[in-house]
Amino acid sequence: MGHVTSDCGMQQESTHGSETWNPFDAFQGGACREYAVIVLNRPIHHWKHHVLLPFWQKARITVTVDGGTHRWLKYLEMQGIDILNDRHEQYIPDLITGDLDSCLPSIIEKLEKIGSTIIKTPDQYQTDFTKALLQVACYIKKHNINLGKIYVLAETSGRFDHIIGNINTLYKSDNLVGNIQVIQVASNSLTWLLKPGLHNIHIPEILVQRKSWCGLLPIGCPVNCISTTGLKWNLSNTTMQFGGLVSTSNTYEDSEVIVNTDTSVIWTMGIESFRESINNETP
What we know:
Radius of gyration: 19 Å
Keywords: ATP-binding, Kinase, Nucleotide-binding, Transferase
GO molecular function: ATP binding; kinase activity; thiamine binding; thiamine diphosphokinase activity
Number of helices: 7
Strand order of the largest sheet: 5-4-3-2-6-7-8-15-10-13
CATH topology of the largest domain: Rossmann fold
CATH superfamily of the largest domain: Thiamin pyrophosphokinase, catalytic domain
Order of helices and strands: EEHEHEHEHEHEEEHEEEEEEH
Domain Thiamin pyrophosphokinase thiamin-binding: 197-266
Strand content: 25-35%
Largest sheet: 10 strands, mixed
Protein name: Thiamin pyrophosphokinase 1
Organism: Pogonomyrmex barbatus
Number of domains: 2
């Protein structure tokens, strides 16, 4: 829906620096900073093998989380790949984490024998997603890896408490993995947290042309002052909060969106037309 903006006083210059987001690079074969892939216990839908398999192979670290291990094995089986009985080292997870109550012990044992590191994390006061980020942080420190992004495969349909739990982990990510960008990937959307400061988000031209949806959501607390450029309905020194104004069903006027916010806010965007375009490319 379109919306009006409200004045929250003079917008202050960002004191947190600026951050650039190029989340689509890893899917297009272009140059991108080293990244990790985490597979949560959600179905993997609508990604063709010539897109998702190279995306996995190029990752510096690959992680499956508890039942996400079965999800990844099932996806591979649909592509005719059986890593448990054939030599496909490139598709074996580097790490398997979680409380491991949703994955058969026999599967875990076999994957450990063929190369995966198993780290059981039984703490029930943290979600498996949260614990997986902590393990990635330990892994990169141990191996001296300069990681730029963490992509988390997690469909956003299903149980609402799981969806909100994943959003909560995004808000914790700064304390878990520092300044590494954490991007949640579903078949129809990307979602991540914009921390206070200035953000430059690069939008694929096909999403601009197709007027794909995007939104800014002030989850947890009000956003006191936020401004944008590049959107159809821009915000100008605006206050956002649930029960008041939120930016949903927005879209693009430009291939670069700039967001300046004094409070952490969720950015989410539709990617259906982008996914379809790369799925239809000749492998």
